[in-house]
Each structure stands twice: as structure tokens, then as C-alpha cells.
């Protein structure tokens, strides 16, 4: 039996989908990831505010290093990947515990491990209902992450309704969604094409989508 649970703590608003016995595993992981990130921010507040790639010290926690690696590839600040890394870590812990169908949607940044097909909707405003992906089972965890300049709390310097990235590296998908969203500053075809072409050159990015002005 697969169940769904919404879970909120601080800035994290996550929907967890899995077998019931793994819901707690996901929640525990989310608590732990947030503690790691908050502790590092206390150590170096610049980590939270910089919009540029950040070089972590050798003794930084692996979660921090993953965020920084993704940010470097995407050319953005490390906090651009915070929702993705939290979701990815939670699904990883669920899979290690034995889950066969594990999904964590952290405010539109989604980590998935599927044994059964799952539809994933992308909210891009009321002008375009019904956008989404039919996701078949695949090996390993993967991510579908979105940024928006018009919807929700994402920091974006662009104007897209949704800038979405697919990658087997969920943390990278989140960072690259921010990069893509930042580049989409109008609905001109050449602007959108340039942004999509740019982000698709980043190693690990499997697919990209932009929705703008309906």
C-alpha cells in the first residue's frame, strides 16, 4: 500500500509518498538534513546569502559538499540546491531502509525512486492546467525540480512560470532549475532557446522545460 503524507518544518513543506513504514524515515532524514545545513550556516553565514558558487572546506558535511558541487556546475549559489538536496537525501534513506516506491516533493523539487509508473504534475499557474510527466520506473533515484519567477517563494531573476530540470542528480536538478529560470527573462523564442541550450550542456542534465506567459 502506498500512502501520502504532507510534512512541514520551518521553510520545508514536503509531501512524502511511499509505503507507510518509510514515512518516518523520510521525516527523520529531513530533520537531520536541516540540522546539518542550519549548523553550517551558523558556522559561515555567507553560505546562505551568496549567489555565486562556494568552495566548502575539507571538513564540511557531505550534504554541504553536494550542494556546493551542484552550485558550481550550475553557476549559482549553494542555497539554490537546498530543497533538492533535502529531498534527495530523504529518498536515499528510504531506499536504503527498503522502500520500493519513494517520492519526496519538497516545494516543487521532487526526488523519486520508482518501482511503478507515476505521473508528476508541474504547476505553472492557472493558465496552463495539466502539464506533467509520465514517469516510468528506472534504475536509481532521479529528480524533477522547478523554479519560478512568478509562482511561490523561489528566488529567480527571470520571468518564467516554470523552469524545470530532470536529472539523476536531484541536487543538481534543483541548482540548474534556478540557472534556467534566471536566464528566461522574456518569452522571446531566442531567449528561451538560448536558456535551454545553455542548461542542457551541463553534465548530468537529462531534460529541461520552460513555461512562460501561458
Keywords:
two-stranded antiparallel ribbon; alpha+beta; 6 helices; 214 residues; 37% helix; 9 strands; globular
Description:
- The chain has 214 residues and is of the alpha+beta class.
- The chain is built from 6 helices and 9 strands.
- The chain has helices spanning 23-43, 46-49, 62-74, 82-97, 170-183, 189-200; strands at residues 3-9, 12-18, 102-106, 109-113, 118-121, 132-135, 142-147, 162-167, 205-211.
- It has a 7-stranded antiparallel β-sheet with strand order 1-2-3-4-7-8-9. It has a two-stranded antiparallel sheet with strand order 5-6.
- Strand 1 (3-9) and strand 2 (12-18) form a beta hairpin.
- Helix 1 crosses helix 4 and helix 4 packs antiparallel against helix 5.
Briefly summarize what is shown.
By secondary structure, this protein is α+β, with helices and mostly antiparallel strands. The protein contains 6 helices and 9 strands. The chain is 37% helix and 24% strand.
The number of E-state strands comes to: 9
Strand content: 15-25%
**Spatial extent as radius of gyration:** 16 Å
- Spans of at least 5 consecutive residues with low confidence: none
User: What is the share of helical residues?
Assistant: 25-40%
Please, what is the average pLDDT? Answer: 94
The count of helical stretches stands at: 6
The largest sheet, given as strand count, sense and whether it forms a barrel, is: 7 strands, antiparallel
Amino acid at each position: 500500500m502506498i500512502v501520502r503524507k504532507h510534512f512541514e518544518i520551518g521553510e520545508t513543506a514536503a509531501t512524502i509518498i511511499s509505503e507507510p513504514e518509510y514515512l518516518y524515515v523520510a521525516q527523520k532524514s529531513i530533520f537531520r538534513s536541516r540540522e546539518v545545513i542550519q549548523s553550517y550556516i551558523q558556522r559561515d553565514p555567507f553560505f546562505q546569502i551568496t549567489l555565486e558558487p562556494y568552495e566548502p572546506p575539507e571538513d564540511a558535511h557531505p550534504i554541504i559538499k553536494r550542494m556546493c558541487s551542484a552550485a558550481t556546475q550550475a553557476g549559482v549559489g549553494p542555497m539554490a540546491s537546498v530543497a533538492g538536496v533535502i529531498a534527495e537525501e530523504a529518498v536515499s534513506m528510504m531506499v536504503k531502509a527498503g522502500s520500493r516506491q519513494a517520492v519526496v516533493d519538497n516545494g516543487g523539487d521532487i526526488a523519486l525512486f520508482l518501482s511503478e509508473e507515476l505521473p508528476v504534475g508541474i504547476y505553472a499557474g492557472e493558465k496552463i492546467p495539466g502539464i506533467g510527466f509520465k514517469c516510468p520506473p528506472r534504475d536509481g533515484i532521479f529528480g524533477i525540480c522547478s523554479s519560478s519567477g512568478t509562482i511561490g517563494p523561489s528566488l529567480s531573476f527571470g520571468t518564467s512560470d516554470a523552469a524545470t530540470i530532470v536529472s539523476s542528480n536531484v541536487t543538481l536538478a534543483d541548482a540548474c532549475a534556478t540557472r534556467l529560470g534566471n536566464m528566461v527573462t522574456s518569452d522571446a523564442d531566442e531567449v528561451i532557446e538560448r536558456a535551454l541550450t545553455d542548461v542542457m550542456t551541463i553534465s548530468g542534465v537529462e531534460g529541461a522545460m520552460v513555461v512562460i506567459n501561458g
